[in-house]
Amino acid sequence: MQLLEVKEMTHFFGGLRAVHNYNLSIQPGEICGLIGPNGAGKTTIFNLITGIHRPTEGDVLLAGENLVGLFPHQIAARGLGRTFQNLQLWRHMTVLEHVKLGRYSKLGYGLLGAFLGTSKQKREEEEIAEKAMDLLRTMRVDQVADQNVLNLPYGAQRRVEMARALATDPKVLFLDEPTAGMNPEELKQMMGIIRQVHDEMGLAIFLIEHRLKMVMELCQRIQTLVFGEVIAEGPPEEIQNNPKVIEAYLGKETME
Amino acid sequence: MAQLTGTVPGYSLSGVSAMLRRPFSGAPLLAWLLGVILAVSLERILGAPLALFLGLPRIPMLFGFVIALSRPLLFPSALIYVLIIYLIPVAAVLRLAGEATNRAADLLMRMPFLVTVLVHLGLLYVTLHLWSGVSAYRVLTLKLILIAVIVTTSLNLINGYQGEFSCSHPGFMALGAYGASVFTLILFVDDKIFGTALLPAWLGPFLFPLGLIAGGLVASLGALAIAIPSFRTRGDYLAIISLAFTFIIKSLVENLEVVGGPRGLGSQPDWANLPTVFIWAVLCIWTINNFVRSTMGKAVNAVRDDEEAAEAMTVNTRRTKMINFMFAAFWAGVAGGLFAHVLRYVNPSTFGIQKLAEVLAMVYLGGLNSIVGSIVGAVSLSMLSEALRPLEIFKWIIIPLLLILVMIFRPTGLIAFREFNVRNILSPRQNPQREV
Prior knowledge:
The structure holds 2 protein chains of 2 kinds. By secondary structure, chain A is of the alpha/beta class. Chain A has helices at 42-49, 72-78, 95-101, 111-116, 119-138, 154-167, 184-201, 212-218, 236-241, 243-255; strands spanning 4-13, 16-26, 31-35, 57-62, 65-66, 80-82, 172-176, 204-208, 221-226, 229-234. In chain A, the strands form 2 sheets. A 6-stranded mixed sheet of chain A has the order 6-7-8-3-9-10, sandwiched between helices. A 4-stranded antiparallel sheet of chain A has the order 2-1-4-5, covered by helices on one side. Chain A is globular. By secondary structure, chain B is mainly alpha-helical. Chain B contains 19 helices and 2 strands. Chain B has helices at 2-5, 13-25, 29-53, 65-70, 75-110, 113-132, 136-161, 169-188, 204-230, 237-255, 274-293, 295-305, 307-312, 317-343, 353-366, 371-387, 395-409, 422-426, 432-435; strands at 265-266, 345-346. In chain B, helix 6 packs across helix 7 (136-161) and helix 12 packs across helix 14. Chain B starts with a helix and ends with a helix. Residues 1-11 and 432-436 of chain B have low confidence and may be disordered. Chain A binds chain B through residues 50-52, 71-73, 76-77, 81-82, 84, 88-93, 97, 100-107, 109, 111, 113-117, 121, 125, 128, 164-165, 167-168, and chain B through 286-287, 290-291, 294-299, 301-302, 304-306, 308-317, 323, 327, 369, 417.
């Protein structure tokens, strides 16, 4: 069985057809890429799958369970972790608090535990903090755990966001342009981290990316989206040489 | 010219303040508490004769402010009184017992944390008890300040931690005040409205907490009624709906003859004594502090800063907002119940727009997203409003002016976005010299 399956998803914003007949299937441990020119609907597809928008038609199945109609937090708790295209961090919280909050749905102490600060609550907070520190170490931001996120350089903020997404114990990790705005050095580090996360945790990853070099290197399978429709899908080499893709996307770059 | 305008090292303003602070920065909270206890004990023994000797009509009730403002000629005497009774003993204790109290604080920190906290709270209570024991006016002021602390801290949960603007706290207080009053009046008081008492009066003080909790729960239910329509969206809706709620509750009570209508409800039993109010204030701060520092409470901050990201991190944002709102309302209700039993009379006009302005001012003066800030805001604004009483109408020019200044220079309040870390506050202070 596929881990994540999207069947014939179509979405309209008013009269505008943003996504048309979109299909996706991701197997456990696979890295899949989604590319396409600006405004093709890549982020919309992310938002549809993660529940921010409800698709007009179609099904989203995670390990066989239909996710359509669930709240985003329910979908996230079932195993779809995500990062955002423009960093969406909480401006008054520390790095550690960010990652700890990823465990929200798995908190065992109830409200009374939180109000009264029971020993069970304290123990659990410590366990969460330990797990969060592990993730921060993987992301190489453990040194700044007690800093406010806004004090961190851009690349580190990206990694905090990823650590936060990983804290939710995702089955599939959605990365929305994980290297947007990064310099070459940060880019290299981020690619290393994505590989490491993939190898160590055996995660399936679905990523939107603009830098083709990175997508070609990382992904086992790539979809090309133009005007809400997938025009080509396949392994990197195939996509690279697909004339439709070159026309729609790469064509512009070769002009330069 | 350049030399004249340049600051001479050691004599600049910051230099002077550092010089004043240095001898005292090494003293732990324990030393401060002991110093103040000494000062207030001194006042009980020497206060009256000293005041007589200095030509003051009586012991200055609020550190000489009232006397200095109403009879300016007595200002020097009031100053001397404050110096002799408060400042010198406290400074002496900090200076002489700094070392010893540091060791004591260190010893206390090694005991179970609960013991440490209880010892400090005990000392704090002794301080307040001795200070207020001088007159009934001080007791009443202190009780009202503690109630203001509860209301302010709980409103900060919504306006600060959750970042929504709520105007419904007077309404919640009214619900709590009437809820608790009806509870005690029906059960324990032979009353014109509710008839004879159902339970023997000696049970009362034991069941009084239940009455307060009942009042708090009624307020929480009121909060639920606001939360359901207004938390579907963000923005100004809550401000408008909550303001409407306050007015609805007020006119509802005014028109309910069962609870006395506009005449109000009186003859509540005198159970809200200082220790009771103190314990409830401590409970309020304790639970709120636990909540906002837990991961569950951090979710409230996450919802404020980025709701979409919070959802993506598995946070049930709607539930989080509702719980926080109802929790805040609960404490406002408890505060209302205490308020009714401190004054032993409530009427609906108390819980109007002026109360709202007062509480909002305390929250924004003290600082958003900060429990220490709320305590500071509530205490300082209540004290100020008492101290400036002799200025009569000008009081209402000075206090808003002060608020405007705070908003200009510190837009988020005096002590905003600070965690209330009890452990740090109680721990012994390291001497700078010994640290090396």
